[in-house]
Write a structure and sequence with these properties.
It contains 10 helices and 5 strands, in the order H-E-E-E-H-H-H-H-H-H-E-H-E-H-H. By secondary structure, it is α/β, with parallel strands linked by helices.
Length: about 300
């Protein structure tokens, strides 16, 4: 995860051909969205990263792939060489690209959680919003299993009855609800950090890095920008490292090692490979620098 968080700094170094004043500077947030991960991380320094939110069940990329299986007409999948159905779903929902992103961000939390009834009679409920007390809607967690089940209920048994227009509306609304769920936790983290920065006189976050395979979704980029703008965070810079680097573990790990070495961190030959290794210094194992082998 440390490597994912630092990927945008690798991109900056490649673009500027310099290792000086790398961007983004600390602190910043990283939203990792892929087929295996959905995680929001606060990167305070090179070695201090705090996980603010993680998925309770499935990752967003996995959820989108499963929704695509229910929404897309059979021929779309059968006639495609794509193995990532999320890309197919985006192209189906917005065949003309970003010019079809007719998105209006919710002004309030209540508006964000309110289901929007479609002309077809169905509505998709936001994850973690439907609880008796409403408390879970404020949890710093992600959940996508329920969203996938909701799409399955809408489409089940209606494969031949659903028109292309309805399928397109389901696709657009499903993506909207999934991405607003991501944006809501980013907003909560920014609001909390802003409050803490004012009381503790610490440096404010000015950048959100979005990495992972789902970060290439153009509707996600549009939604995040408009959502944060509407809710008072227009000053937050959004950075999207190219998918080729987000999925190249060798490149990002090599870059992380480079940054650590240049910052003065060296290990000796007693270092062993670890199956699990926390990035948070407050974790039980002490985080990145908590293991043995550092000089």
């Amino acid at each position: 995860m440390q490597a994912h968080a630092l990927t945008s700094r690798l991109v900056h170094a490649l673009e500027t051909k310099s290792n000086e004043r790398l961007a983004p500077g600390f602190p910043f947030l990283t939203l990792l969205v892929s087929g295996g991960h959905t995680m929001l991380v606060h990167s305070k320094t090179l070695t201090h990263h705090t996980i603010l939110a993680n998925t309770m069940d499935v990752a967003i990329g996995d959820c989108i792939d499963k929704m695509a299986r229910h929404i897309l007409p059979t021929g779309v999948i059968e006639n495609s060489s794509e193995i990532m159905y999320g890309r197919l779903l985006e192209r189906f929902a917005f065949p003309n690209g970003s010019q079809e992103h007719e998105y209006v961000a919710p002004s309030t939390r209540a508006e964000e959680l309110s289901p929007k009834l479609s002309v077809w009679g169905w509505a998709i409920t936001a994850p973690l919003s439907k609880t008796r007390s409403g408390a879970r809607s404020k949890d710093m967690k992600f959940s996508f299993a329920g969203l996938g089940s909701a799409i399955e209920r809408i489409c089940h048994g209606r494969e031949t009855a659903m028109t292309l227009d309805e399928r397109m509306d389901v696709a657009r609304d499903a993506l909207r609800v999934a991405f607003e769920h991501l944006a809501s936790r980013v907003l909560m983290a920014l609001q909390q950090q802003l409050s803490e920065a004012e009381t503790a006189d610490s440096e404010k976050i000015r950048t959100l890095v979005v990495s992972g395979g789902v970060a290439s979704n153009q509707f996600l980029r549009t939604l995040l920008r408009l959502f944060l703008d509407k809710r008072g965070f227009a000053h937050i810079r959004l950075m999207f490292p190219p998918p080729s680097l987000c999925t190249d573990n060798a490149a990002m790990i090599a870059w992380t090692g480079t940054e650590m070495y240049r910052a003065g961190f060296e290990s000796d030959l007693s270092c062993n490979a670890l199956r699990k290794w926390s990035i948070d210094p407050d974790a039980e194992d002490g985080g990145i620098l908590g293991v043995e082998g550092w000089k």
